[in-house]
Amino acid sequence: MKPSLPASALACAIACCALPARAQDRAALPPPPQPVPGSLLDRGALAPHGGAPATTAPAKRRATSGTGFYVTVEGHLVTNRHVVDGCQRLVRGDGAALAVVATDPKNDLALLKGPPVIDAALLRAESDARQGEDVLTYGFPLQGMLSSSGQLGAGMVTALAGLRDLPGQLQIDVPVQPGNSGGPLLDRRGQVIGVVVAKLNALRVAQMTGDIPQNINFAVKLAPVKALLDAQGVRYATGPAGARALSNFEVADVARAFTTPVFCQR
Questions:
Q1: If pLDDT is split at 50, 70 and 90, which confidence band does 41 have?
Q2: Is residue 163 part of a domain?
Q3: Does residue 25 have an active-site annotation?
Q4: Which domain does 80 fall in, by range?
Q5: Is 247 marked active-site?
Q6: Contact at 8 Å (CB) between 144 and 63?
Q7: Are 68 and 112 in contact (CB under 8 A)?
Q8: Would you state the pLDDT for residue 209?
Q9: pTM of the predicted model, to two decimals?
Q10: Does the first or last residue of the chain, that is N or C, have fewer Cβ atoms within 10 Å of its Cβ?
Q11: Which of 39, 82, 104, 187 is catalytic?
Q12: Does 181 participate in catalysis according to the annotation?
């Protein structure tokens, strides 16, 4: 039998999904009820391997990237707070500037504003996800290495709480890579039900237990997202409950229209 992970050790192992997994990526998750230091969690901000536009990455500045998604055609964009922390300049995939409007440190969320766009996400009207529900992600992991047009992932909700029963998060088995942080978690109708935030640091857990965990990843639930938008007076749209289920390629087409890489200069 593998040894159980001590609480003190567990408190030092999760990873988040913006590039790079450095000090910011090992930051503590919001504690319920105790602090959870982040070396067990990878927060996925990516240090791009040439992925950020050259014009936005001066040689002496450190560039990172994550993902965001539009919630209004006026240009309001949701991502993770750790994606934008400490940024001197933020731009989206086409180089247009983004500004931070508000953040929610407890739930690792940030609201940004950029130029108007054509498409915005529909948030699911009912906020609660269900255990076993099919979900998909769309994001821009490993910028400069993988496709710059975005990556679709598919899986399911495996638990209705995060690490150590963190109530504001879901556990998912959709593969998550550095750069996925801040991307939408979608249901089968293409409606947003959460925000990708972190993954379990498999190597760290393996060092502690002798076992390698697989596809243990996390997303912020939809309720905190709606609360942040409501607090800022952002008028987002919700999807109809009776909408038909979409195929994977249809969800990809929908998500691609309102999702963008977010590049940060520090």
A1: low
A2: yes
A3: no
A4: 7-265
A5: no
A6: no
A7: yes
A8: 74
A9: 0.80
A10: N
A11: 82
A12: yes
